[in-house]
Structure to design on (101 residues):
């Protein structure tokens, strides 16, 4: 059975962050936030990606995963560039204002 095309007009920008210090660990986007939460929770436990090692250092009761903004788009490329830029700024400790996106 063929995969259905992804409707990027339903995309939302989300962040993984520390609720106490407001430190943002990661920005991402998805068209299905409910499913993405399940995937992220599993990755936090098992992934060997360096970002998840940093996320694991945060106590679980302080960890947050929330939608930041609706990001309707016509294509994946645009969303990938936005998220890549945001995560680059996190690594460089550059202030991020997502309301201007």
């Amino acid at each position: 059975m063929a995969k259905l095309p992804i409707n990027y007009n339903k995309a939302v920008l989300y962040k993984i962050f520390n609720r106490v210090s407001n430190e943002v660990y990661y920005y991402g986007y998805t068209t299905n936030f409910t499913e993405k939460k399940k995937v992220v929770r599993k990755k936090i436990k098992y992934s060997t990606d360096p970002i998840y090692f940093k996320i694991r250092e945060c106590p679980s009761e302080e960890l947050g995963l929330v939608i930041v903004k609706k990001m309707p788009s016509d294509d994946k490329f645009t969303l990938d560039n936005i998220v890549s830029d945001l995560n680059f700024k996190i690594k460089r400790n550059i202030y991020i204002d997502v309301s201007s996106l």
Helices lie at 33-46, 50-56, 76-91. The mean pLDDT is 92.
